Amino acid sequence: MPRSPAAELVPLAKLLAEDPRYKFEAYQFVGAGLEFAQDVLGLGRPGPTRKRKSASAAKRVEEEARPVRHISGQELCWALQQLAHRQYGLMAKLVLAGWGIHSTSDFGSIVYNLISIGKMSKSDHDRREDFDNVYDFEQALVREYSITKEEEPCRP
Fold first, then answer.
1. What is the pLDDT of residues 48-69, one digit of tens each?
2. Closest of 103, 95, 101, 111 to residue 15, by C-alpha
3. Could you read off the pLDDT of 98-136 as tens digits, one per residue?
4. How far, in Å, CA of 8 to CA of 10, rounded?
5. Positive or negative CA dihedral for 67, 46, 134, 117?
6. Cβ–Cβ contacts within 10 Å for residue 141, how many?
7. What is the CB neighbour count within 10 angstroms for residue 11?
8. 76-107 b/e with 16+ CB inside 10 Å = b?
9. Distance (Å, whole) CA 29 – CA 80
10. Where are the domains of the chain?
């Protein structure tokens, strides 16, 4: 029997109550970063096939099976840097800090919290420490940010 969207949020709500370091948006961002790494950047080693579920207007339906692509902790951190630049530009470091994220170690804590409630998975080779000190936030999110031609605002 498919679970309701509200039932899907119960484990995350409990997690937010148990570990108040990170806001709900931080978990959403890391989840989006995983999809961004796999689907947009093409990162990850192919793994076993699994069924994904998606919401439809009235019920949840199974989509066609798709292979799981495993992303390392370091790869996810770099993908999150790129996603933060795309979504928040020069404000990325400030936005992430507002959600409780101040370093790549925080990404690791969020990922392992999501693993603990079954929202993410890990391989036998993954370690929490894989996320530690991948890059300096000031350097990677502020100093290395640059506006590209595609991102320039339209001029009249």
1. 544 444 444 333 344 444 556 7
2. 111
3. 999 999 999 999 999 999 999 999 999 999 999 999 999
4. 6
5. positive
6. 24
7. 14
8. bbbbbbebbbeebeeebbebbeebbbebbbbb
9. 8
10. 9-44+71-146
